[in-house]
Amino acid sequence: MKWAYFLFIRLYPLMAKLLAPFNSKAALWVKGRKGLIQRIETAMRMNKQPLIWMHAASLGEFEQGLPVVEALKKQYPQHRLLVTFFSPSGYEVRKNHPLADWVFYLPMDSPSNAAAFIEIVKPSIALFIKYEFWHFYLSELKRHQIPTLLISGIFRPTQLFFKWYGGFYRKMLLNITHFFVQDKGSADLLKDIVLTNCISISGDTRFDRVLTIAAARKEYPSIERFCKDEPIIVAGSTWSDDDKVLQHFTIVHRNAKFIIAPHQISAERLAECLQRYQSAILLSEYEASTVNKETHYQTLIIDNVGMLSSLYYYASIAFIGGGFTNEGIHNTIEAAVFGKAVVFGPVYEKYLEAVEMVEIGAAFSAETALEMESLLDDLLNDEDKRMNAGKAGANYVSSNAGASDKILNYIQANLLLTN
Fold first, then answer.
1. Are residues 195 and 53 in the same domain?
2. Same domain flag for 342 and 245
3. Across the chain, what does the average pLDDT equal?
4. Percent of the chain's residues with pLDDT above 90
5. In sequence order, which ranges of 201-316 are alpha helices (DSSP H)?
6. Cβ neighbours of residue 258 under 8 Å, at least 6 residues apart?
7. Range of the domain at 300
8. CA-CA to 414 of 20 to 30 Å: which in 30, 139, 326, 406?
9. Is 350 in contact with 419 (CB distance < 8 Å)?
10. Other CB atoms within 10 Å distance of the CB of residue 334
11. Are 182 and 248 within one domain?
12. Radius of gyration over alpha carbons of the chain, in Å?
């Protein structure tokens, strides 16, 4: 399968360039990598401080890694932080994050790019989040004897590492110094490839992250005015297929209000939401309007990035988007941390926290639009069931915290960074 990987890293940039005139995400991917090595070299030229490098595929992985690098920056304040992203959806949102000293796209994996990047950056440690595996970068890090940790890793038997033809991919794993995985199943899979003392079951750092967010949640007076004391369903990170499921429910339940936060906030996507939901208004227009807004609108469409994690606080029920798509659901514990009953569509089996929340009665899944309507009706009408689900979810989040401390303790105990 080595040939397939080499083909991928060559074809991906070409495909992105071909799609760029027609696809905004591809255009950002291409634009962000123009002269990238030179820009990184210029940025690093004056740096004399030791450096922590964290790489995340996209926004969700960045949020997973954030508790670890926050702790490292406190413990090792003289170290600088470099963050790299593969995807525009992470880079464009977090390119000005205050914790990071530098944020860049990751140059596409190749022998020359990896060698140049490591030589320029000279990281003291490399943190790869969840499931980013780049052959030449990992090989170069191993060659330079730079400690390389996988944070919040999760592995499944269907992955290439565990196929008979996956030898090339298994060798990638041998370049990683230590694996911090989410569950025992992942650890058991890895034990056939790497030494057991290179594996720790630390849990998921996202639990630490959502607890931090909840403790510092932002208040939004405009949201409070919209909600009043009425039942509120907050639908987060929705796709078109999710909206189709919710649409009919909003029509027949005029006694409830809805806050819809689309996964993407392009003009086309926002226009689709406004058309699909009756009595809907964009948040920006709602805040600018002078009419008696509370009586005029049933549905609020969020047209910015960054509010969702705090918006779940206002929910009676949290609907997590993605479950009616092939991609699968988004972050369930962002809502659970606030003690909210959580619902989503049928595509959630890949997400351990969602599976476990369903098992303990903290979350509920529906296969069809009709099942979802029945489920939402049930939860709205049964306050005890709704409250018990919320309590179970909040307890689940708090009981799974602590992954970041385990990782920090390992780094300190093994003297991977020094003050």
1. yes
2. yes
3. 94
4. 87
5. 206-215, 221-227, 240-252, 267-276, 283-288, 293-296, 308-311
6. 232, 233, 234, 235, 246, 250, 277, 298, 299, 300
7. 220-399
8. 139
9. no
10. 26
11. no
12. 22
Residue 346 is assigned to a structural domain of this protein: yes
Q: Do 193 and 105 sit in the same domain of this protein? A: yes
- 81 and 186 both lie in a single domain: yes
Which positions ≥6 away from 85 have C-beta within 8 Å? 55, 56, 57, 58, 62, 91, 94, 103, 104, 105, 106
Is the domain of 158 the same as that of 30?
yes
252, 377: one domain:
yes
What is the domain count for the chain?
A: 2
DSSP state of 67: H
Q: Residue 29 burial by CB count (10 A; 0-12/13-18/19+): exposed, middle or buried? A: buried
The amino acid sitting at 326 is N
The Cβ of residue 118 has, within 10 Å, a number of other Cβ atoms equal to 20
Query: Using CA of residue 341, residue 345, residue 349, residue 350, what is the dihedral sign?
Result: negative
Q: In 10 A of CB 195, how many CB atoms?
A: 9
In what order do the strands lie in the sheet containing 199-201?
A: 102-105, 80-85, 51-56, 125-129, 148-153, 178-181, 199-201
Model confidence pLDDT, tens digit, residues 9-55: 999 999 999 999 999 889 999 999 999 999 999 999 989 999 999 99
> What span, in angstroms and rounded, lies between the C-alpha atoms of 256 and 232?
6
